[in-house]
């Protein structure tokens, strides 16, 4: 056993620490929260985001999640993807996706504050998540690095990484990666694989109507086929085409 002369100072110090913490509980809480945030930020993939300026991503967090779900369900999971440089992606595809998902993409710095305000107001009014406000950059960050959880910690990570991505990558590069990694069907990732899957041809050959149809199913790519004549696809693609015309695309 340790000598009591050694233990006594330790016990006294521990008691003083506990007493101080009870009196200064606000300071203790702040220290703990700050330490937790610092520890979390230290694990963020800042280097990976910066490397995207010169290197294409491989498997995304979203792909890994889908692979795990397939394994759990006893299904085979295979990724269909072929990278297409932004310069080879038709302008109609680019414009259709932008007016559908993030109309102010070229001018904002990662966050659309107007849409965020409108989203919060609509969701409070309806008492549910009726309207989203994620920009293309935010969607890309979630797709590449985050879980589908909606807890505040994940949202904090999303905002910090969105800010970092906007500082380190050009808008064109962000859009190129987004168009090549988002899901367009079960195991179908990126615009070229999407074009092959839904229309049986390379993305470079897509028409404006087909581009609008592909943009229309981005929110629910597993539930809709871009080439179908479902009410959902027809309505959303028509809305996208109207927006494109209004903006001179």
What characteristics describe this protein?
single chain, mainly alpha, 249 residues, 2 domains, 12 helices, elongated, 0% strand, Penicillin binding protein transpeptidase fold
Number of helices: 12
Architecture per CATH nomenclature, i.e. the level-2 architecture of the largest domain: Orthogonal Bundle
CATH overall fold name of the largest domain: Penicillin binding protein transpeptidase fold
Shape from CA axes?
A: elongated
State the low-pLDDT regions, or none. none
- Beta content: under 5%
| Whole-number mean pLDDT | 86
CATH superfamily of the largest domain: Biosynthetic peptidoglycan transglycosylase-like
Give the oligomer, counting copies of the same chain as homo and different chains as hetero.
single chain
The helix-strand sequence is HHHHHHHHHHHH
Structural class: mainly alpha
Reading off the top of the CATH hierarchy, the class of the largest domain is best stated as Mainly Alpha
Helix content: 55-70%
Radius of gyration: 24 Å
- Count of DSSP E strands? 0
Distance between the termini: 81 Å
Work out the count of structural domains: 2
How many strands, what sense, and barrel or not for the largest sheet? none
Q: Explain this structure to me?
A:
With 249 residues, this protein is mainly alpha-helical. The chain folds into two domains: 1-43, no CATH class; 44-246, Biosynthetic peptidoglycan transglycosylase-like (Penicillin binding protein transpeptidase fold, Orthogonal Bundle). Helices cover 61% and strands 0% of the residues. The protein is built from twelve helices and no strands. The chain has helices at 4-23, 25-42, 46-51, 61-72, 91-101, 113-126, 136-145, 152-168, 171-181, 191-199, 208-216, 231-246. α1 crosses α2 (25-42), α5 packs parallel to α11 (208-216) and α5 (91-101) packs across α12 (231-246). The protein is elongated, with a radius of gyration of 24 Å. The mean pLDDT is 86.
């Amino acid at each position: 056993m340790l000598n009591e002369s050694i233990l006594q100072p330790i016990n006294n110090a521990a008691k003083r620490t506990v007493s101080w913490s009870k009196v200064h509980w606000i300071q203790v809480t702040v220290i703990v929260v700050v330490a937790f945030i610092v520890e979390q930020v230290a694990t963020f993939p800042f280097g990976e985001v910066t490397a995207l300026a010169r290197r294409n991503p491989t498997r995304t967090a979203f792909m890994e999640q889908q692979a795990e779900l397939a394994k759990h369900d006893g299904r085979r999971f295979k990724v269909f993807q072929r990278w297409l440089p932004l310069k080879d992606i038709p302008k109609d595809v680019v414009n259709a996706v932008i007016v559908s998902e993030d109309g102010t993409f070229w001018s904002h710095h990662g966050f659309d504050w107007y849409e965020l305000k409108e989203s919060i107001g609509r969701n409070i009014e309806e008492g549910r998540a009726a309207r989203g406000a994620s920009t293309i950059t935010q969607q890309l960050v979630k797709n590449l690095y985050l879980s589908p959880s909606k807890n505040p910690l994940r949202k904090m990570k999303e905002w910090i990484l969105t800010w970092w991505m906007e500082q380190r990558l050009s808008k064109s590069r962000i859009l190129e990666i987004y168009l090549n990694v988002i899901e367009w069907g079960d195991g179908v990732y990126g615009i070229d694989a999407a074009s092959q899957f839904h229309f049986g041809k390379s993305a470079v050959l897509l028409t404006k109507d087909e581009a609008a149809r592909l943009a229309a199913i981005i929110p629910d790519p597993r539930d809709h086929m871009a080439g179908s004549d479902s009410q959902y696809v027809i309505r959303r693609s028509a809305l996208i085409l109207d927006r494109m015309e209004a903006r001179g695309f």
